[in-house]
Structures are given as C-alpha cells and as structure tokens.
Amino acid sequence: MKYDIAFLSVIIPAEMENEVRSKSIRRMEDAAIAWQRHIIAGIEEINNGPVNIINVLPVEAYPMGYKDATIKKYNFAHTEGASDINVGFCNIKIIKRIVQWCPIFREVELWASKDNGMPKVLVAYTMYPEFMRAISFVKKVYPDITTIDIVVDLPQFIALAEKPLSPLGKLYQQWSEKQAKKNIHNVDGIVAITKQMAQLISKDKPYEIVEGISTPEFPELNPQNDDNIRIIYAGLLHKKFGIMKLLDAFARIEESNLNLVICGLGEAEDEIISRSKDDNRIQFLGQLPREKVLDIMSGCDVIINPRENTGEYTKYSFPSKDLEALSSGIPFIGYKLDGIPDEYDQFINYPMNDSIDALAHCIVNVGKTCNKQAREKANRAKIWIMENKSPSCQGTKIFELINRIRSSK
Question: Could you tell me if 177 and 267 lie in one domain?
Fold first, then answer.
C-alpha cells in the first residue's frame, strides 16, 4: 500500500546550504542532517514516491547562534516531484520558542486536510517539542492519521558537554522533557536507535529499532602512498566523549609513522592545539563540512571513536559516526556501548579494557600496515552494513511498523 507521508524534519534544503552555513555562528548538526536525508530516501524508495517535507531550519537563535532574526518561508523540492515547505519563523532568542509552533501547525493542517485518497502518515524526527505538539494536534483533529516518532536523542540526555547548562538552558531542557512525556500518548509507533530507548519511552507502544543507516555517499578509498599510518577522529571535541583519553593514549605511542588527525570543535580544542604543537604527529583541522571530512577519512588507515561506555546515556546511544565508519571499509576502533547490539561485535575493534594503555595498544595493533586481519574485517563490515543497514532496509522497518499499527486498528 502507498501512503501519503509528511515528514517533520530539521534539515537544510540543498539550495540553501551555502547561505545557511555562512550565517551560522555555531556548529551545524551535520550527522543529524545526513541521518534524516538517508531515512527519507529509504522511506521514499519503499513508498515509491516522495514524502512531503515540513522543515524547520536547524539554526540556533539570533543573535548568538545565527545572523538572521527572521527565517522566511521557503518552498523547495528535495527530489523530483516533491513539494516541500521550509517554515518561516521569528528566530530571536526566547521569542523563537514561543511562536515557532504556529507555522508548523499551519503547514501540518494544510497537509492533513487534503484528501488524495491515500492513508496519511505523519513522521516526526526526534522529540522536538513543537513536533510533539503537532502530533497531538493531528491526533485530536484527524485521529485516523498514523503518527510515528523517530527518536535519536532523549531530551534528558541531550546536553552531554562538560560545560553546565545555563539556567535558561536547564529550563528549556525540562520543558522539552515535559512536552515529550505529555504528548507521547498521541504517538502510534516509535522508531528508536536502541531497544532500551524504545522501552524507556513507552512500555506498550509498538516500535522498530533503526540504530543507524549506512553512508552510501562515502567516497572511494584513497590510501596515501607513503609509510605514514593515519588515524582519524571526527566529531564533537567534548571531554565526556573521550577525546582526552585518545590524546593521552596517542602520547604513549612511540611509533613515529603513526599520525593522529582530528576534526571537529568543542571545549577540548585548546588542549588539542597545545598537544599538536608538542607532537608534530597530531594534525588538528577544526570543524569542516561533512563532505570534506568524508574525503579526508577516505585517505586514512584507521577511524576511531573514543566514546567510552560510561554513563546511563550509553544505553540510549548508537553514535552515527560508528555506522559511518563501518560503511567506509576502513578499520574502525570503538568501545562497546550498552546500546550497540552484539551483531556489530565482529566488525568493531574493541580495546581489551578501559585503560589508556589498552587503547594505545589497540591503535598500534590495528594501525600496523601489515595487519591484514583488520583490513579484512573492515571489508566484511562494509559489505554487511550496506546489505543490512541501507536506507531502503531501514525504510522497510518503518513501513513494517506502519503496517502493524494500521492492521491493529
């Protein structure tokens, strides 16, 4: 059966990419944007037609996070035959939170009220407060519309940086969590990245686990013709994500031909710059566009994610960078988080324990050019990921969930 699907998203329309990035004062959520584009593509492949995107531009508030105080409504088409809306809203801090729900509701109402003869499904990305309220509005006025919420982050675990939240930030986080709990009963089904997350959200709602999506646009590998071995970490440079442990482990490695490439931004930047001055094997590139990061990765020998299995949030986490790394065909080093299913264990190179020495040993062992076993594991991982975690495979899971929900009514 074909559905009329509306997707509440936070992406950047392709034709606005350069403008939005030039006006953004702070970092962009590139991984989240890629995740949404991949799952939308998967849904469209299974549904044999474009979804209707109702989009909120993923920019922070004026004046500290973005240069524009007003975001104008914009019509776009993310693919041929699509009719999408980038909602307009006042982007001034605090006011943004008060008024942003109005244009979202308006566009959802326009979509919901049009009868084209197909069953309607509203899919929302994350438990964004305005999206959760829009779901409740739809179920109240149009109870026959099936509602799906894709949850990749829980409001209570979003703020993971070392810096404490401001009083205003704490209030917003508390409000977001309250809105999620208040409106979750109007969600018909949940798509979560871990089983623990789905069960924490609701113990009785149907769900599917889509822990991640392969990266089909990963460039062809471009190994460098020299004796250097390049290990790369790309992501947030927050200490809670293990960047300091990675630096400490690398400092214990004596091999002069091992090099550490770091891309990203966060509170550890100054320490990384300082270490790179003392150790010319460390190269810090700062924050780069996702396409550039993927291109740099394609020329590296090892990808690493030093996030450790500490803290309750690891039960509700499957880092998107892990799926990206496993899609590359490049050996990947990471830790076994509680949210990572056992089926991934055969493809990830885990340190023997949580010590700094164990991480250093793992880097050296996997990074050796003679380590044929690590390269073969990486090739097997890429094949498995592309066959089992592709956009179409994950889109199929969402359709199975929709069909289960509709058949139970």
Answer: no
| Residue among 125, 31, 29 nearest 323 (CA) | 31
Give the torsion sign (CA, 10, 11, 16, 22): positive
Q: Which residue has the tokens 């549904």?
A: 47
- pLDDT at 26 (0 to 100): 76
Give mean pLDDT in consecutive 10-residue pieces for the chain, a chain of 409 residues.
Answer: 96 94 86 94 96 96 94 96 96 91 96 95 95 95 97 72 65 82 94 94 93 90 87 93 97 96 94 97 94 95 95 88 95 96 96 97 88 92 96 96 92
Can you give the residue range of the structural domain that contains 335?
229-388
Residue 56 lies in a domain: yes
Cβ–Cβ < 8 Å for 339, 309: no
The DSSP code sequence of 232-298 is EEES---GGGTHHHHHHHHHT---TTEEEEEE--STTHHHHHHHHHH-TTEEEEES--HHHHHHHHT
CB contact at 8 A, 84 and 13: yes
Look up the CATH number of the domain holding residue 325.
Answer: 3.40.50.2000
pTM score of the predicted model: 0.92
Residue 237 falls inside a structural domain? yes
Q: In what order do the strands lie in the sheet with 52-55?
A: 74-76, 84-86, 52-55, 4-9, 120-125, 146-151, 189-192, 207-209
86/193 same-domain check: yes
Total tally of structural domains belonging to the chain: 2
